Amino acid sequence: MNAAVLTGALAGLGCYLLLRLWLRPRPGVAVLVARIDAGRRSMRGHTLSDAQAPGPDPAAGAGASPADGFRAWMARLADALEVLAAERGWQLRRTRSDLAVVNRTLGAFLATKLVAGAVLFCVVPLCWTALRTAGVPLPGGVPLLLALVLGALGAFLPDLALRGEAEQRRRDFRRVVGVFLDLVAMNLAGGRGLPEALLASATVSDYWALVRIRQALANARLFGTTPWEALGELGREIAVEELVDMAGALALAADDGAKIRTSLAARAATMRRREMSDSEGQAGERSQSMLVAQLLLCSAFLLFLAYPAVAALLVSA
Questions:
Q1: Rounded CA separation 9/37 (Å)
Q2: What would you measure as the largest C-alpha separation in the chain, in angstroms?
Q3: Which of 16, 56, 236, 312 qualifies as a FRET site for 1, CA 20 to 30 Å off?
Q4: What is the pLDDT of residue 58?
Q5: CB 235 within 8 Å of CB 264
Q6: How many CA atoms lie within 13 A of 63 on its CB side?
C-alpha cells in the first residue's frame, strides 16, 4: 500500500513538472525585453562563429565520422534547447554568469545535462538486462529506482563541473584585473588619456581575460558607449565585482575629474593583498586536509598491527 501511494505521488509530481515545463507561460514586459536581448546576442554569436568557421567540404560529406555526426546532432540539440529556454523565459542568472565566464552557450550546457542524464539513466537497465540474461537472479524494482537516481546525478554533475570551472576562471580574472589596474596607472603616469590607457593596457597580452577586456573596449567603440560602461557590463555579466568597482571608479574620474591614477594603484594593492590572503587560506586548508589524511593512515596502520593480538585474545577467551 505504501509503495503504491509513493509511486502514484511520484508519477503525479512528474506529470505536474512536465506540464509546467511545456506549457507556455504568460511573459511580462521585462521578460520579453530580456528575450529580445538574449536573441540578439545569440544571433550575433552565431553570425561570428559562422563567419569564422570554414565552409563545408562536399568531398568530406560522404565520409563523415560518427564523432562528427554526434557533434552536429549535439549542436542542433543545443540550438533547440536555446530557443526553448528563450521561449519559456528561463532566467538562470547564476548559470548564465558561469557560462559567460567560461565562454559557453546555455544551449550547449542544457544539451550536456540532458545527454549525461539520459546516458546514466540507460546504464542501469542495460546492465540489469545483461545480468539477467547471464542468469543472475535480480529483483525487478531496483533498476528503476537506481536508474532514476543515476539519471538525476548525471543531470546534476555538469552543474558542479561548471561551478568549479567558473570559480577558477573568476579567480584568474581577478588576478588579471589587479595587473590591469597597475598597467592603466602606469599608462596614465606616462601622459596618456584614460581611454588610450585602457586600450593600451588591454593589448599587452593575449591571455583570455585580457582578450575579454579588449573585446569589451572594442565593442564600446563600435556601439558608441564609454569604456567604463562596457567594463561594468562585462563585470556584471561574468559576476566579477572587482571589475564593476573599477568601472565605477573610472566613471567617477571621467565625470568629476578625480585623481584616478592614485585610486587605481591603491585598488591594485588592495586586490593583491586580498589575493595573498585567499592564497594563504587555501594553503592552510590544504595543510589541514593533508594532516587529516595522515592521521587516518596512521590509525589504519595501528589497527592493522593490533588486530592479530586482539583476535588471539578473543579466541583464547
A1: 40
A2: 91
A3: 16
A4: 45
A5: no
A6: 3
